[in-house]
Design brief:
Blueprint lengths: L2 H5 L5 E6 L6 E9 L2 E6 L2 E6 L3 E5 L6
Antiparallel strand pairs: 1-2, 1-5, 2-3, 3-4
């Protein structure tokens, strides 16, 4: 996944789909360093290799 595109997600709540997992998970993107993405989900912080990400959804705000 291109790093420049991922940087648009910093600070946003997104749904991340990773290779090897059956479904995506909701998390807030905290930081991006080289090819690693730091996300926070509920009470956990996760570091994900950018090559393992298959999709990222940015939900639209509901009004």
């Amino acid at each position: 996944m291109p790093i420049d595109m991922l940087k648009e997600c910093i600070g946003k709540e997104v749904i991340v789909c990773v290779e090897g997992e059956l479904s995506g998970f909701k998390a807030t993107v905290l930081a991006i360093e080289e090819n690693w993405i730091k996300v926070e989900e509920k009470n956990n912080v996760r570091f994900i290799n950018g090559d393992m990400i298959t999709q990222i959804y940015i939900p639209k705000n509901k009004k």
